[in-house]
Amino acid sequence: MIAVQTLEIPAAGVSLEADVEVPESAVGVVLFAHGSGSGRRSPRNRYVAGELHTARLATVLIDLLTAEEERIDTRTRELRFDIGLLSVRLAATTDWLVRDERTAGLGVGLFGASTGAAAALVTAAMRPDTVQAVVSRGGRPDLAGEFLRLVYAPTLLIVGERDPVVIDLNRAAMSRLSAKTELVTIPLATHLFEEPGALEEVAGLAREWFARYLSRVPHRNGDRPGPTPGRTTTNG
Length: 236
What we know:
Distance between the termini: 8 Å
Radius of gyration: 16 Å
Helix content: 25-40%
CATH superfamily: Alpha/Beta hydrolase fold, catalytic domain
CATH architecture: 3-Layer(aba) Sandwich
Number of helices: 6
Number of domains: 1
Strand order of the largest sheet: 8-7-6-5-3-4-2-1-9
Number of strands: 9
Structural class: alpha/beta
Oligomer: single chain
CATH class: Alpha Beta
Order of helices and strands: EEEHEHHEHEEHEHE
């Protein structure tokens, strides 16, 4: 069983809560960018994370909004669509992964859901030398706008067959991406992939994509990574 470490990660002037799980002999780490109104406790993303562990992939599930911001967003529903804010924090967390002793040297992948997919793609454009692959689940990659043409990390777009509006938005975004990109529709699935077997198929596709493209990287400039600041709680 993999121990879950709950951390407070400094990112762009705030502290964000994250659950970090690193299996033995990990070859890569996947940072999750949650979607509209969701967070690190999302049962769907936790299930996907568990499947990634079977491929020796570490996972980081993070709340990109602070507790106070979550309360504001519950009322206004605005911050979840602030792709600029989310992507800056996601990029800062990506930088933290490169420095921290638990994840330094691991290839970095991004898994984005809903609006989190746009933040993941903007981050991939902002950190082309760090992000090795991106997977979007029911995402809104179109919200990444002009950053799409700057994404070079291989990108997998997964959409439910019964989510026609999002399918069209993904197809439009796909035509603007510079990266190697595949679009997969899950038969009979709707936006949240709640149908029997749908989420299992999503997890399998994500696991295969990240296992294909993530690989360990050498430490830069011979630097030895060390622990980064933050409070840690271990569960499990």
